[in-house]
Design goal:
Elements (H helix, E strand, L loop, with lengths): L7 H25 L2 E2 L6 E2 L5 H7 L20 H5 L6 E7 L4 H10 L6 H15 L6 E4 L4 H7 L3 H13 L2 E2 L4 E3 L11 H8 L3 E3 L4 H4 L3 E9 L3 H12 L4 E9 L5
Parallel strand pairs: 3-9, 4-5, 4-8, 8-9
Antiparallel strand pairs: 1-2, 6-7
Helix pairs in contact: 5-7
Length: 255
């Protein structure tokens, strides 16, 4: 009889599996419930209704290197003068009304479930661009202190869903942010770059997952590009063959 009694480790594993199934079933049920659109407050099957996507996220021609809106879709002047370390950039929306408020809710107000509809939109933009020839999708990391404060990394919530939708491998640990930095909000490009100096690097244990591979970095917002530059440079120093940048929202040019 003693051999039939499961060990504590086995019971813990079974309980964890059961809890995981319950969470998945609950989330699946919640996703099918009607709700109010996060933007217009009309009843919708999704957090953002199709009408708001059409109204507030029309197709926009963008610079292929930094995703800034460009009327002709050509490479912008700053990227011609000083090309970024990433080879291509894609953005789903411009960072402005109403997306700035929605991103803030997703990022700062414990709404990680919004990642599902936001990642779906970004994945659609990526697929339309044909930029899916990458080996792995990585999030821009948070420091451990910021991760403890927030409870989740919004970039990873996007990245893991995009990877699933596009059937591309994901890796949350290859790129590391080793120290906490002051919030980037409100900082200019030079201040952001200084803030990030020596703050991002690749985990030596992930060398085999980076070297010679085509990688895509995912983040929620690109403003000056300082964070994306630092992250891409760290991956290239780690041996990546090339790096793309996929962001949910791109801050428009102030010119």
């Amino acid at each position: 009889m003693a051999g039939l009694i499961p060990s504590a480790a086995t019971l813990t594993d079974l309980a964890a599996r059961a809890a995981g199934r319950c969470r998945r079933w609950a989330h699946a049920g919640i996703d099918r419930l009607p709700r109010q659109c996060e933007l217009c407050r009309q009843w919708s099957e999704q957090p953002v209704c199709t009408g708001c996507w059409a109204r507030f996220a029309p197709p926009v021609a963008r610079c292929p290197r930094c995703a800034i809106a460009m009327a002709d879709g050509r490479t912008c002047g700053p990227c011609l003068r000083q090309p970024p370390p990433f080879t291509h950039a894609i953005a789903a929306v411009d960072y402005g009304y109403p997306w700035d408020a929605l991103v803030a809710r997703f990022k700062f107000h414990a709404r990680p479930e919004l990642a599902t509809c936001l990642a779906r939109r970004l994945a659609e933009c990526i697929a339309l661009s044909g930029a899916t020839t990458v080996d792995c999708v990585l999030p821009v990391p948070l420091s451990m202190q910021r991760l403890r404060e927030r409870g989740y990394n919004q970039a990873w919530e996007l990245a893991r869903r995009i990877g699933g939708q596009l059937q591309i491998a994901t890796d949350a640990r290859a790129l590391v942010r080793g120290r906490d930095t002051v919030h980037q909000v409100g900082l200019g490009r030079a201040a952001r770059a200084s803030n990030l100096r020596h703050g991002l690097w690749t985990d030596p244990r992930a060398a085999a997952r980076i070297q010679g591979r085509r990688l895509a970095l995912v983040d929620d917002v690109m403003t000056t590009g300082a964070t994306a530059d630092a992250a891409a440079q760290a991956l290239l120093r780690g041996g990546a063959a090339q790096v793309q940048l996929w962001v949910l929202a791109r801050t428009p040019s102030q010119d």
